[in-house]
TrEMBL record:
Membrane-spanning ranges: 29-48, 54-75, 87-109, 115-136, 143-162, 168-187, 194-213, 233-250, 262-281, 287-306
Chain segments carrying region Disordered: 1-22, 305-359
Family of the protein in this entry: Belongs to the EamA transporter family.
Low complexity composition-biased segments: 319-331
Compartments in which it is found: Membrane
EamA domain span: 29-159, 168-301
Protein name, per record: Drug/metabolite transporter (DMT)-like permease
Protein's organism: Promicromonospora iranensis
Pfam family, one: EamA
Membrane topology: Multi-pass membrane protein
Length: 359
């Protein structure tokens, strides 16, 4: 079977290697919007606390997969078919970032305030800042790591008044690890499959797993027990938190990398607090607003360009006309076409989203 890579995929992944001026602001914008939608999930998940967990999530991801297929058809995009070990990475994204993550969120809010689960997700920047660059065969950027710590501290201030029992804390830890896996396990395949490909394959794999879990643990009639108040929450999860948020997030990761994109998970507890107020909770106090300010400082700090030291050095070709060597370091032969040196020099180096398993 022959597949073609959508033009948008190449533009985004090359931008992840050498960000264009537009990518430097669209990447953070998409990351912030995507995480705001994830924060709204923590708030509305309380409505689903008494609903059959696996059935609701199976319906959610089934609807999301269908919507993504419609979007791809209407926009004329084609999704690359995964091959080899790419299936294992996508299964990891689906099972950790989607299936287990939602178990932690939905069950966690039954034992803890929504903001407690939100702050667990907001601790993800530290993991992404440290582990994300290693997947791209580069070193963690000190400024981004410091910014990640600042963002996490701000998130703790935002959710400092939350209450939880031991079970709730366990679910919070589960959401932390699974949220990190949602991004890190997608890195090896994001370059070739792109945001649409990763999102589509991850959601249909999750849907299959969740339908199997629902049938095995909740029974075939579980989906029929959903009440009227569950329908809007499920639609919100399927359309806003899955289709829109996933595309925004993976596009941002492809443009600015997992470390910097991870800083915007600090938006999650802020959105969670706002969602709690909209659902009838108390208005945040001064400490919460101070935490919001700290999160903003951390995001701004980490979003600053790091300069030449943060990127791999490239060998520059000599501009002297008599130079006998090409930009790639190999001897120049008389048969070389005039544009050969420029083509070699412009070819992008290995992107941070390329690993040995992703080729």
């Amino acid at each position: 079977m022959t597949t073609r890579t959508p033009p948008g995929v190449r533009a985004e992944t090359h931008a992840g290697t050498e960000p264009t001026p537009s990518a430097r602001w669209t990447g953070p914008l998409y990351a912030g919007l995507g995480m705001a939608l994830v924060g709204s999930q923590v708030a509305v998940s309380g409505v689903l606390a008494d609903a059959p967990l696996f059935a609701v999530q199976a319906v959610r991801y089934t609807l999301a997969a269908l919507v993504l297929l419609v979007v791809l058809r209407c926009t004329g995009r084609s999704v690359p078919v995964p091959r080899g070990r790419e299936w294992a990475w996508l299964a990891g994204v689906a099972l950790t970032g989607l299936v287990l993550f939602n178990v932690g969120v939905v069950r966690g809010v039954a034992h803890a305030e929504p903001a407690v689960i939100g702050v667990a997700v907001a601790a993800v920047p530290i993991l992404l800042a440290l582990v994300g660059p290693l997947l791209g065969r580069t070193r963690p950027t000190p400024v981004v790591v410091v910014a990640a710590v600042v963002v996490t501290l701000g998130a703790v201030l935002v959710t400092g008044g939350g209450h939880s029992d031991a079970t709730g804390l366990g679910y919070a830890l589960l959401t932390l690890l699974c949220e990190a896996g949602f991004t890190l396990l997608a890195v090896p395949v994001l370059r070739r499959l792109g945001p649409y490909g990763v999102s589509l394959h991850a959601v249909w794999i999750a849907a299959v797993a969740l339908w199997a879990l629902s049938l095995a643990t909740e029974g075939p009639d579980a989906v029929l027990t959903l009440r009227a108040e569950h329908v809007p929450a499920t639609l919100h999860l399927a359309l806003s938190v899955t289709v829109v948020a996933f595309l925004l997030w993976y596009t941002a990761v492809g443009r600015i990398g997992p470390g910097r994109a991870g800083l915007f998970t600090g938006v999650v507890p802020v959105a969670s607090a706002v969602g709690s107020v909209l659902l009838g909770g108390p208005v945040p106090g001064p400490v919460v607003w101070a935490g919001v300010g700290v999160v903003v400082v951390g995001v701004v700090l980490g979003a600053q360009p790091t300069g030449r030291g943060s990127r791999p050095r490239r060998r520059r070709a000599s501009s002297h006309p008599s130079s006998p060597r090409s930009a790639s370091g190999s001897p120049k032969t008389p048969g070389d076409p005039p544009g050969r040196l420029a083509i070699r020099r412009a070819r992008p180096r290995t992107s941070w989203v390329t690993t040995s398993s992703g080729r």
